[in-house]
Amino acid sequence: MTENSGSLDRIRSHFQLAKFGTNLRTEILAGTSTYLSLAYIFIVNPAILAKAGMDPSAVLFATVCASTVATLVMGFWANLPFAVAPGLSMNGFFAFVVCGILGETWQQGLGTVFISGLLCVLATVFGIRKGIISSIPTGLKQSITTSIGVFIAVIGLFLAKIVTYEGGVLNYRHLSFDALSSPYALVLYAGLIVAAALGARRLHIPGGMIIAIVVAAGLCYGLKIEQGAIPNLMGAPFKAVGQLELGVLFQPKFWSPILVFFILDFMEGVGQIVGLTSGTTMQDKDGHVPTIGKALYVDGGGTMLGSLLGTSSLIIFIESAIGIKAGGRTGLTAIVCAVLMAASIIFSPVISLIPSEAAAGVLVYVGYLILPLNKSSTGTGKYSAFDIVTSAFMGLIVFCTFSLDKAMAFGFWAYFVRSMARPGSQNRQYWLGIIALILTFSIVWQLRVQS
Asked: Which pTM was predicted?
């Protein structure tokens, strides 16, 4: 009894539970809530990366292992209640743009992911990560967020066969009543309705995403939709380990994807940390997060680990907010979530029964949640006309081309030109121009190679 009491005291001391105004019971419940909120990624990630030609069992293994390790390190080392797992915008860009539209191998795709993670770590080491982020105007950050939301929603529409693309351009002829009323579309509607209903503020069930996917999966079987089920870990779990190709660094057509992964990763990393800790005891009196540097290292290092094991970029999951709302304030919340992540291996036979089409509705719902609706993007608390127009064009580019890099190139050029037309920080102009040029050069090179 005394030994157990001593162990609990050491846990309380290590995670500083008293300092952050929490306790063991609260942290355990918070970690469980976070896990239930993001467990859908263990179904969705293998389904999406399978579209890139990867073995789903290998992706599932990489997803579980990389997420577990990164979340454990986030908890033990950074002492923050954040879960880390593959991001939906990242895996979609990986599968449908890098390996789809660009026609590259998944091994090359993993190489771009590794290099982007390495850049994030180096940017943190040399202290330029915050500087780059601060140079990106708030309006552009919101426009990029809009693009990400549209992109994730379009992935759902694509899985439901409502939209299709030919040569990287939307196939307008496919848009029809038949596509909107097909069995695939019905599955999307079912998943979307259930996810939205269970995610509504009045109900807000942590495991709502999983329930929505299960309901949609049942409808898939009822409608006899042909699909390739996701294999469990009895398949080839180690097939993608160490298969990345780092030679992509010396091929200009890969610079744009690397830069997109890099920008999304480091921008979301800082944004998520600040947003998730806002108004909590995790921030000091000046509004700073003391261990933000450690969290950023985990973010970039997790991406590198994921690519080595066989999955796309890892990010700090916004679903961590569910655990934080449940009272989680320390790394113990992340530890509990990580343990449950590891236990997901046990459920791999169940995951193997879920068709990829069953995730369509949840993807559309997540895309909607990411949109910066009714959020302030300027000092006045409203979007400027320029912000709205740029954001709309970037969203339209994503929808018409199924690509984030082209939308981001447009956004960076728009804000660069705007910054040149008005007095402002030369540092901001410098970074906007450099990023715009690299994105454009790589995109032009891609088009040259494809032609």
From this structure: 0.79
